[in-house]
Structures are given as C-alpha cells and as structure tokens.
Amino acid sequence: MPIVVTSLCFSYQRGTPFEKKVLHDINLTIEDGEFLSIIGPTQSGKTTLAQHFNALHIPQKGTVLIDGSDPSDKNTDITSLRYKIGYVFQNPDYQLFAPTVGEDIAFGLKNQRLARIEIQHRVREAMAMVGLDYNTFYNRDIFALSGGQRRRTAIAGVLACRPKVLVLDDITAGLDPRGRDEILSVVRSLHSEQNVTIVFISSSMDFAAKLSDRIVVMVQGRIIMDNTVRKVLGRSGELRSIGLELPEATAIVHLLRAKGYPLPSDILSLDEALEAIDTALQKAGATKLWN
Amino acid sequence: MELTRNITIGVYLPGVTCIHRLDPRTKIIAATLLIILLMLSQSYEAYAFFTLFTAAVILLARIPLSYALRGLKPMLPVLMLMWIFQLFLFQTTAADILFSWWIFTARTAGLHMGNLITLRVILLFMVTTTLTLTTSTVALMDGLNSLLKPLRLIGLPSHELVMTLMIALRFVLILAEELEKIIKAQMARGVAFDRGNFIQKTQKIFPVFLPLLINAFKRAEELIVAMEARSYTGGRGRTKMKTLHLGRVDLAALVILLFFTGLMLVVLLTTHPVI
C-alpha cells in the first residue's frame, strides 16, 4: 500500500481574500511497513498533507496515488480506499459519538456492513490491541472515560477496520506522561507485530526519534528534511532554528560538542549518550564513569 | 472538504477603506434603514436602484464581489425552492396564465412575486454581509450596545442581549470548523454521506450531530469559565477602553444615506408595483 505524493500544492479558502497557501510542491513516498514521522512546528501543513493520504483532501494541484489509485479520478471508490488508510484525529471528541465504547468501535465496521459475528470479533481484537479490557470497557459510557482511555477508544475504532496504513495526528497532545507512554507502546506494537505502516505526526522530535525509521521535517508547507532519524538529528542547528526541540539525550550531547568534546552528532537515546561520553573519556585517559 | 470556504456571515474582512472606518453605529443604522427600504420596494426599478447602491458600497469597501456572492452559494437550493413555490402557489384573481402542467399552474403574478422575493432575500443577505464583513465583532457589539441603551429604561437587558448575539455570531465559524473536523473523522471511518436512501442518509446525521452538540456545550462551558475568571458580571458598571465617536466620515455617510433614502422614496412612489 505505498502512498506516492508528487508536486502537491494546496491552499485553504481558495478563491477568497483569506486564501492561504499551506502546501508547496510536496514530493513524498511512503513505503510499505515504514514507520514515518512528519515533524514540524504548528501551522507547517502536516495535518493538511496527511489528510491527503486518505482522500479527506483531494489534491488541488499535483497528484497523490494511494496504492496506485488516484482520488481525483471520479471512478475511484474513495470510501473503500479510506478503510485501508486509518486516520486518528488529534482530538478524540471529534470522533466518539456512540453511547458506549463497544458501539463506537463498531461504527466503522457497521459502515462496511460486516456480519454481526465478524464485528464482535474485530471489536474484541481492536480493544485487546489498545489494551482496553473487553469485559470492563465494552459497555462503559463514553463520558466515563479518562483522556487516555478516550484516545485509546478512538484508536481502536480506527484499528477495528484493519487498516494497512495508520495515520496518527498528534495523538500524544494533552495526555499525561503515563497515558502517552501507553499509547506509544500500542503504536510500537502495531508496527512491529501487525506490520502496519505508521505515519506519525507530531510537533515533538522526542517520540518521533524513539519510534520511527524515517523523519520528514516540514516548515511553512515545505519539506526541508527527509531522511533517517540519525541523519535528521545530526542537523541539530537547523532543527533548533525552526523551533523544534531536540530529544533530551541529543540535546545534551550537542551542548557538549559545542564545548569541544569529541562526540558523535547522531545520538538518539540516553544509553547511547552515556556510552559515547564514556568512550570519549577513556580515549582522553580518564577513568570509566559508569559500569 | 472545506466548509468554511462558503461562509461569509460573521466573518470580518479587515481593511482600511472609508466604509471600514465608519462608526459602527452609522453602519448599523444604515443597514437597518436599507433593510426597511428593501421591504418597501415593490417594483423592479426600485430593486435595480437599490442593487446599484449596494454594489457601490461593496465596491467602496473593497470587498471582492466574488467573495461577497460566495456566501449565497449554500443558500441557492433554498432560493430556488422559494422561487418555484411562489411561481406555482401564489394565489391571485388575475387569470393571466403563463403555462400549466399537471395540477400546477404558473401565473405571471406568481413569476413576478417569485422574482421579487428571491431578489429581496439576496439583497438582504448582501446588506447584512457587507455590515459584518466591514465591522469587527467588538465594534459591532459596541455599536449595538450604544444604540440599544435607551431601551434599558423599559427594562430590556441590552448589554446581555448584545453579548448573546455576538457570541452566537462568533460561534457560526467556530462550529463550522468543528463540523468539518467531525465530518472528516467519520468519513475516515467509512461514512459515505452521499450514499444510501433517505432513511440511511438521515441516520448518518447522528455521528456528526452528536459530537457537534457535545463539543458546543463543552465550548460554552469553557467560555463561561473564561468570562467569570475575568470577573464578568454583565453590563452594569462596565467601562470601555475605546469610546465611540462620530466623525466627519459618519456625517458624510449619513447625508449620502438620507439623500439615497429620498431618491428611493421617489422611485417607490413613481414606479408601479409589479403586482
């Protein structure tokens, strides 16, 4: 299910005095089984771009090919295309409407007119994937859920459709650290166990660096970097100048590098940072700091 | 998928033209007077004259005509329906039959009535849209407040009324934006809004309407907290940072308006009503 974007442009409020160009000549290919992060400050066009991936926006200029089919083509069955590309919105409140968790998760499946038993089975499966206990939560009132549970319900509602590609639009926003970690571990296992292609949209480099293989950095509607995580993090100066926070470990190492310590620039995790600092110290003849 | 593109009501288009600089009170009075004149108009000549004046104001305010007309787009089906109803259902003693088909009979009087009412709604929309496009919500509120103040003597809570009105106006766009997000979230789960029979289509309203309603209540609650956090207690004893004052532009505008009203009255009295 590759998604190929070629010279895509998009403006909001086209033809009005408020017209605002939000995407400029975007070229991007998302391969099967990838974990891709799209990072950028607010208003950089991340969401607009991602909404082209499942035809919520139809290209104004340029093309988007979703598994070879073109949503601008009148003959394309856009609805069945959307079943294959799941999209989880930033705010679960835009999605949840049914009285209970179970019914809301089943909504997408009912739209597909699946058999009752199949629906039941898939709801159970989706709830297990996001870590919501079936017996406890199936009949739970939507309003009796915590923020993290609401978000998990929203994700389960999308997962139940068994998408091949999952677009996650800033799903960590507004969650406490624990809720965030829970969600991220769900995402990680989806990618590694179910082999779902993940498009992870965030304004924070931290989670993207921990999870993804490849990072796309967007600024003002343009892609300015598209590379592996290490290569992107190596360009820390540029990242900081556009207002993106580096992951903590990377930031520390870069501070040390600025003071003249010979450390590598592409540090991702705290463990790697410790190791690199240790090696550098040993080379300089100092005793080992950590064992 | 973009809903806000066709919404012009409640939108303010910042500018520096003389229309923008007018005191909000002048603009509200002008709009009210124009609407009254519009309601009195019964002849095509009067409508033509009125359209010219409105167009001149829109041009003067530098509102792109295509944008001003865009707001009519979502109203088109309603306007068409109205025209058709008038055409076939207008009761008259005149036997002047245009054509008849099955049980429907179209009369000339009905045709004129349809034209008249459709034109009236379009012009009414243009006048109010011009007012909101050239006046910021705050200015509009100050203006209305100041104009309605005398009514407080008869016990009308003018400030509260205006505040409610302005919040409603503001929420038009906010709710439209929210509606768009909700529709997208449900489309992503495979709702095809344009498919199915009437009952199936009606059922599709729920997954959109319910979150919208819930979110509207949430927003309203947040707004209440935000207002109370800033010690909002209503209109009593409230002072303003910017006080309104009428300038020379306003005087000129009022003179022009009176002149137009005079001319309009002459047109109204000298032309024959269409029916």
Walk me through what this model shows.
- The complex is a heterodimer of chains A (291) and B (275).
- Chain A has 291 residues and is of the alpha/beta class.
- Chain A has helices spanning 46-53, 78-84, 101-111, 116-130, 134-137, 147-159, 177-193, 205-211, 229-234, 236-241, 248-258, 270-283; strands at 3-12, 20-30, 35-39, 61-66, 85-88, 165-169, 197-202, 214-219, 222-228.
- In chain A, the strands form 2 sheets. Chain A has a 6-stranded mixed sheet with strand order 5-6-7-3-8-9, with helices on both faces.
- In chain A, α3 packs across α4 and α4 packs across α6 (147-159).
- The longest helix of chain A has 17 residues, at 177-193.
- The mean pLDDT of chain A is 88.
- With 275 residues, chain B is mainly alpha-helical.
- Chain B has helices spanning 18-21, 24-40, 44-60, 65-70, 76-89, 108-134, 137-148, 158-187, 198-203, 206-229, 248-270, and strands at residues 97-101, 104-107.
- In chain B, strands 1-2 form a two-stranded antiparallel sheet.
- In chain B, a hairpin with a 2-residue loop joins β1 (97-101) and β2.
- In chain B, α5 packs antiparallel against α6 and α8 (158-187) crosses α10.
- The longest helix of chain B is centred in the middle third of the chain and has 30 residues, at 158-187.
- Chain B is flat.
